[in-house]
From TrEMBL, chains A, B:
Gene encoding the protein: proA
Identification of the protein by name: Gamma-glutamyl phosphate reductase
Keywords tagged on the record: Amino-acid biosynthesis, Cytoplasm, NADP, Oxidoreductase, Proline biosynthesis
Reactions this protein catalyses: L-glutamate 5-semialdehyde + phosphate + NADP(+) = L-glutamyl 5-phosphate + NADPH + H(+)
Organism: Citreimonas salinaria
EC number: 1.2.1.41
PROSITE patterns in the record: PROA
Keyword NADP: yes
Amino acid sequence: MKDLTDIPALMHDMGRRARDAAAVLAYAAPEAKRRALEAAADAVEAQAPEILAANAQDLDYGREKGLSDAMMDRLTLSPERIADIAIGLRTVAAQDDPVGAVMDEWDRPSGLHIRRVRTPLGVVGVIYESRPNVTADAGALCLKSGNAVILRGGSESFHSSRAIHACLVEGLRAVGLPEDAIQLVPTRDRAAVSEMLTMTDTIDVIVPRGGKGLVGLVQREARVPVFAHLEGIVHIYIDREADPLKALEVVKNAKTRRTGICGAAECLLIHRDVVDTIGQGVIRALIEAGVEVRTDETLSKIVGTVPASEDDWGREYLDMIIAARVVDDIDSAIAHIRRYGSNHTDCILTEDDAAADRFFQRLDSAILMRNASTQFADGGEFGMGAEIGIATGKMHARGPVGAEQLTSFKYLVTGDGTVR
Amino acid sequence: MKDLTDIPALMHDMGRRARDAAAVLAYAAPEAKRRALEAAADAVEAQAPEILAANAQDLDYGREKGLSDAMMDRLTLSPERIADIAIGLRTVAAQDDPVGAVMDEWDRPSGLHIRRVRTPLGVVGVIYESRPNVTADAGALCLKSGNAVILRGGSESFHSSRAIHACLVEGLRAVGLPEDAIQLVPTRDRAAVSEMLTMTDTIDVIVPRGGKGLVGLVQREARVPVFAHLEGIVHIYIDREADPLKALEVVKNAKTRRTGICGAAECLLIHRDVVDTIGQGVIRALIEAGVEVRTDETLSKIVGTVPASEDDWGREYLDMIIAARVVDDIDSAIAHIRRYGSNHTDCILTEDDAAADRFFQRLDSAILMRNASTQFADGGEFGMGAEIGIATGKMHARGPVGAEQLTSFKYLVTGDGTVR
């Protein structure tokens, strides 16, 4: 039994074992990785009762801690959600193996033939919130892309993540791949997170998924390269040339379909000229749907709204709450999003192509949308299969991150005694 | 006149100005960037005498400091080299503009149309050795890719870099682009480098080019993401199935064509079974060409070699010196390269496809070569036009880095009132 109180020693040991596993995984047969994921899916299905029992422990803990309804919902597993986890594993299993895939190849006048092929990154560290399914998705995508992974889930989902992780290890064992390929940090101690952020010798990249607390920690402490998966402060701008019906449908869907996902709308910007027409209609519909609408002074004349405070701009509610304010024109909307957004997903509602072009060109969010619900910000909806999350940084990975974005590449150059 | 002794204030001011320039550059017209680079090339040609005079100051300084011949060679400009700098600028000017290029686009069953388009990274910081031409190449590639850049050249090339930088600014001014798009750190104080490595608010990525000293500094201090362009500890492995003639030609070219570039061979590994045949011939030819060959005990029986010390493994000479040792088999060669290499460029000489495949699969250098001179490790030779250098890391950029790899991407999603 390892000493779970000596965090540096514990994490150093996990890192070393991950590095060793990565060396084997880098050239593991695609078929072995596929079968491991299928065996893991079988195990998840077979062990659904154990996973539910583990989840019940987490839910008790969550209730004691007084988690919000939205957080409890994300934490909760059901037979259906467990079935979805197994389906997710099978989906990743069935995807093409990215490792070794030739991205480009060309000949040079010198006589050289050059190929650019995908290669794993090495060891990935994933730090995530209390969503048990991320354990399966992140583990599967890292394995598929030939990376070893160290998973550190939220403390509220501790037992659920352990039960799911056991199934992943069962899959690895079934095909003879190293069990250290997918490791789960076996303690709730937050010191493990700080340790991971500085393990430059053994972790090649950290994927941090979470809100403001994690943002700050990563900014202060990370020495390992980071694919940030941070807040989704999603804005929707209703332009002067918006279509009233589309605006109504899209905003309602973007806010209320599921409030707990990072693509949920959090702030509504309304062009001054359409406040009394489209704006009124949209805000009333949101209030009728049970949304708390926190508004600036101009919009506060609409019955049922509540006044916003300065804190409400740039805030991720993940709940049935939205901030709303009036803007003078598209450039004011762009300026607001630049100041308060998180470069995740932002949307314009307009029939005016020039306005849409300006919005698309002058903003630099990972995902920019026109006349579409921001709830589509999702790897599955983009056609990528599973995703480890939505990257909000610009280095290497961006937007929905699947197995391909968890790889790097190398050049293979062939000559015949060719000299320069 | 700015206070050049208050480095934090100086650098903070440069960062803020770069950030402002980047906001404009992000949607600058391709034509403006092209014309700016052409005007810069004109200025380099017109001001060749001034650049040569500045270079003469640097050469005096270098002689006083007692720089090695190899370093003096890299520092020296001539009318021909200045003409090449202008040609380089025109080459980048003529390339396709990467910003806004559609990398992929597809339709989804939901009705959404998704485009993935290139977008600049923002502000790039380039820290480089005393090669005056890098000032022009790095400045041009950053401008082409829509990034603002802060250049910090080696202290020995201070005046040459300033003279070339003045030409780049003249190009920006000629077309009305912000002059702060390409800034050069106006002091030799090394504190500026440490400052750049931590300017997370204003620099998006640092490109460090250099040897061991810079490697250590970056590892200790960098908080900004890094595209490492570090040492090229280039290995060539002569396999048992190597062709003797190809081996002779390739090794000679890889070591001696130009010793000061990062693709120059630094270490020769020879399969035990061909030491007395191919090995002897290659080492004698190197010695005849004037190369100092530092060998292990087995090879030291060859007349004219000198004994290697432990320090010689994993060393970048950038000079007419090479280390050489015997290995038992291909796996020993791979193990040596894993331990001492720098993931830059490594080469196998063999006629055996299985050996080449194993070498390509089990090593993870940015560039792996078979039967070709490692001096081909170069963006131009790869067909990419100019390069900012050869990236040795795995995040985002790898191998020869041109304008494309200095971009990120965003997703533009269009619907028609589409909801999920």
